[in-house]
Description:
The structure is a homodimer. Chain A is of the alpha/beta class. In chain A, 37% of the residues lie in helices and 19% in strands. In chain A, the strands form three sheets. The first copy, chain A, has a five-stranded mixed β-sheet, sandwiched between helices. In chain A, strands 10-9-8-11-12 form a five-stranded mixed β-sheet, sandwiched between helices. In chain A, a hairpin with a 2-residue loop joins β2 and β3 (28-36). In chain A, 54% of the residues are buried. Chains A and B meet through α6 of A and α6 of B.
Amino acid sequence: xxxPAKLLAGVELGGTKCVCILGTGPxxxxxxxxxxxxxxxETLLHIENVLERWRAxxxxxxxxxxxxxxxxxxxxxxxxxxxxxxxxxxxxxxxDVAQRLGRRLGIPVGVDTDVNGAALAERRWGAxxxxxxxxxxxxxxxxxxxxxxxxxxxxxxxHTELGHIRVARKPGDAFAGVCSFHGDCIxxxxxxxxxxxxxxxxxxxxPPDHPxxxxxxxxxxxxxxxxxxxxxxxxIFLGGGVMCxxxxxxxxxRHELKRSLNGYVEAPELGQGLPQFxxxxxLGEMAGPLGALAVAAEAEVRSQAxxxxxxxxxx
Amino acid sequence: xxxPAKLLAGVELGGTKCVCILGTGPxxxxxxxxxxxxxxxETLLHIENVLERWRAxxxxxxxxxxxxxxxxxxxxxxxxxxxxxxxxxxxxxxxDVAQRLGRRLGIPVGVDTDVNGAALAERRWGAxxxxxxxxxxxxxxxxxxxxxxxxxxxxxxxHTELGHIRVARKPGDAFAGVCSFHGDCIxxxxxxxxxxxxxxxxxxxxPPDHPxxxxxxxxxxxxxxxxxxxxxxxxIFLGGGVMCxxxxxxxxxRHELKRSLNGYVEAPELGQGLPQFxxxxxLGEMAGPLGALAVAAEAEVRSQAxxxxxxxxxx
Lengths: 315, 315
């Protein structure tokens, strides 16, 4: 009989909604609860109540994972570790999430960005199984990129946040962009709200031949060009609300990538393998909440390793 | 008495010259020889002769490191592993370097890009000591970026090659660019040859108030913006021929980075620490050849680990 998997809890903290989840993986979700991301104190109290109710019902989880919108401070040892920092979301600037929830539950807590979490979930349970170097891109309310290098998310001076890079504009594209920080960064040019501002209607209502898609495909192609040359993922999973139901967009983005690289990188991924190289993710709408569980699973492993090291040292 | 360091050999394969090096580090270079990168067969024979002469004089090195201009195939197990692939350099397309030199010398061979090698050398012996996540940028005949994540260079579907990304252009900059693949990628816009094409004179002769520097600083600032959000280095070392003697350019690049990020990332590195965040490398012109030695050192460690694993498995 296989070892029973460890019970984990997760919180996906999104810009408009939070999802609390309890379980061991996609086939064993014991509880899931959605709540709006509203007033910050109210929201955090709501999350705490959900997690404590679950603990009473299901027993204590081994670890909690938080997969959060960013920017979030992930510098271990920083006094504001696990805080949401410079978000434009009203009332949420400089908000302690991880330290507060960790104190409340008394279990190991891991934090990562929502997109890094989703990428880790795709690797553990979804379309990225067996891949050590890949990326997960979501194009929705914002544009987010989770980047995995040698099996882990990247953390240097900060977490990565590739949705806010500026890209070369398509000639003739004079749209000012909608990002409150950068105007025409890629999120400002090609996210759901950007498409709606460009076209005067939501992305889901745009026909495939609407000219706005040309600008969106160009921008996403430039993002992929930069990803290929900056971390060289083995695959790029491209999901999120804007991609849903827009099958034509995948081919356009692949075409724009290939055109822009212009033969500079020779690899099977950019030739015959291109349809697999840029492809939809595997977990669909569950990637976000399962991302929080994946972050919890990594925190649990780290905490075990630290515990083992401490035990060994004290012998 | 400390263990004597292991003798290593390296070849920095550059677009215009190659440097062969023998030693254990910057304070113990036993031999160094420069030769032009000319006809490919002639050049490779010349390198083989140098390495064999040194072996006769100094004994066999423990490993050979090759730090090469790119693109180079670094996919372990690929039939063209260690080949230079799509280079625009005449006569060098699809050239076996690593397999050939490895067979000739019969020692472990490591290969990486020239800039990844230089970054690893800076970490081992130079300005990046103690850093696990950083980047090394050279602005010279081309623009190259070596990126280190958790102490190692990145390798996914390919090595990274950030000098060939397209960036957002400075308004009013209509220069077509000089890259033979991409025209106005960052190498095409801001490398030494690009500056000379823009200004009609070499970068070294341009006064600090020449308007060309505005375009160069803007382009490099965009590159740094993308680096901060793609791999979030703890420091970026900015060197190469164009940067030499252009102290003003460092401040301009820092300014462009800060202006472009527009407060989105809050980190000491982008505030008071900015002068240290973007700073010159430590090894100067020796970064390239020492990069080849650093690649050799990593190959030697890997080969020891594999040997140990093999020994353990055969017990």
